[in-house]
Amino acid sequence: AGSGLQLTDLHEVPDQPGEPTRQARLKSLHLRTGDGEWLTDVDATVRAWSHTRWGLLFKVLRWPLIGPLADAAYRYWARKRYQRYP
Fold first, then answer.
1. Is the model's pTM score more than 0.85?
2. Diameter of the chain by CA atoms?
3. Which of 61, 63, 65, 85 is most buried, by CB atoms within 10 Å?
4. Nearest CA among 26, 20, 59 for reference residue 43
Protein backbone atom coordinates (compact mmCIF):
# COMPACT_ATOMS: atom_id res chain seq x y z
CA ALA A 1 0.00 0.00 0.00
CA GLY A 2 1.87 3.03 -1.29
CA SER A 3 5.33 1.54 -0.85
CA GLY A 4 6.23 1.71 -4.55
CA LEU A 5 8.23 4.30 -6.42
CA GLN A 6 6.43 6.91 -8.50
CA LEU A 7 8.50 8.67 -11.17
CA THR A 8 7.60 12.20 -12.21
CA ASP A 9 8.88 14.22 -15.15
CA LEU A 10 10.40 17.21 -13.37
CA HIS A 11 9.98 19.34 -16.49
CA GLU A 12 6.21 19.16 -15.91
CA VAL A 13 6.30 20.03 -12.20
CA PRO A 14 6.02 23.75 -11.44
CA ASP A 15 8.05 25.28 -8.62
CA GLN A 16 6.22 25.25 -5.30
CA PRO A 17 7.01 27.36 -2.22
CA GLY A 18 9.05 25.40 0.30
CA GLU A 19 10.18 22.78 -2.23
CA PRO A 20 13.36 22.47 -4.29
CA THR A 21 13.27 24.60 -7.43
CA ARG A 22 13.23 23.11 -10.91
CA GLN A 23 16.80 24.35 -11.32
CA ALA A 24 17.89 22.49 -8.17
CA ARG A 25 16.06 19.36 -9.30
CA LEU A 26 17.89 19.51 -12.63
CA LYS A 27 21.28 19.78 -10.93
CA SER A 28 20.92 16.65 -8.80
CA LEU A 29 18.57 13.79 -8.13
CA HIS A 30 15.72 14.65 -5.77
CA LEU A 31 13.32 12.18 -4.22
CA ARG A 32 10.33 12.99 -2.06
CA THR A 33 9.38 10.26 0.37
CA GLY A 34 5.81 9.28 1.12
CA ASP A 35 5.88 11.43 4.25
CA GLY A 36 7.09 14.51 2.34
CA GLU A 37 10.80 14.41 3.24
CA TRP A 38 13.18 15.41 0.43
CA LEU A 39 16.27 13.28 -0.20
CA THR A 40 18.98 14.31 -2.65
CA ASP A 41 22.05 12.96 -4.37
CA VAL A 42 23.30 9.57 -3.12
CA ASP A 43 20.61 9.38 -0.42
CA ALA A 44 17.95 9.70 -3.14
CA THR A 45 19.74 7.15 -5.31
CA VAL A 46 19.94 4.59 -2.50
CA ARG A 47 16.27 5.11 -1.60
CA ALA A 48 15.15 4.81 -5.24
CA TRP A 49 17.11 1.60 -5.76
CA SER A 50 15.66 0.21 -2.53
CA HIS A 51 12.45 -0.31 -4.51
CA THR A 52 14.20 -2.84 -6.77
CA ARG A 53 15.69 -6.27 -6.22
CA TRP A 54 19.16 -4.66 -6.30
CA GLY A 55 18.45 -2.28 -3.43
CA LEU A 56 20.69 -4.09 -0.97
CA LEU A 57 23.69 -3.55 -3.24
CA PHE A 58 23.23 0.22 -3.12
CA LYS A 59 23.11 0.39 0.68
CA VAL A 60 26.91 0.01 0.57
CA LEU A 61 27.03 3.61 -0.68
CA ARG A 62 25.93 4.79 2.79
CA TRP A 63 28.54 2.83 4.77
CA PRO A 64 30.80 5.12 6.85
CA LEU A 65 34.00 4.65 4.81
CA ILE A 66 32.33 4.46 1.41
CA GLY A 67 29.67 7.16 1.91
CA PRO A 68 31.96 10.20 1.71
CA LEU A 69 33.59 8.82 -1.44
CA ALA A 70 30.21 8.10 -3.01
CA ASP A 71 29.03 11.62 -2.14
CA ALA A 72 32.13 13.21 -3.71
CA ALA A 73 31.83 11.04 -6.83
CA TYR A 74 28.14 11.88 -7.17
CA ARG A 75 28.74 15.64 -6.81
CA TYR A 76 31.47 15.48 -9.47
CA TRP A 77 29.27 13.47 -11.85
CA ALA A 78 26.23 15.69 -11.29
CA ARG A 79 28.23 18.86 -11.89
CA LYS A 80 29.71 17.48 -15.14
CA ARG A 81 26.34 16.17 -16.28
CA TYR A 82 24.66 19.51 -15.64
CA GLN A 83 27.38 21.43 -17.50
CA ARG A 84 26.86 19.16 -20.47
CA TYR A 85 23.04 19.28 -20.45
CA PRO A 86 21.85 22.56 -18.96
1. no
2. 39
3. 61
4. 59
62, 55 contact by CB (below 8 A): no
3-state secondary structure 16-74: CCCCCCHHHHHHCCEEECCCCCEEEHHHHHHHHHCCCCCHHHHHHHHCCCCHHHHHHHH
Band of the pLDDT at 81, cuts 50, 70, 90?
Answer: confident
pLDDT band at 85 (very low <50, low <70, confident <90, very high): low
What does residue 38 show for φ and ψ, rounded to 5 degrees?
A: -95, 130
Phi first, then psi, for residue 31 (nearest 5°) are -140, 130
Q: What is the CA radius of gyration of the chain?
A: 14
CA distance 82 to 84: 5
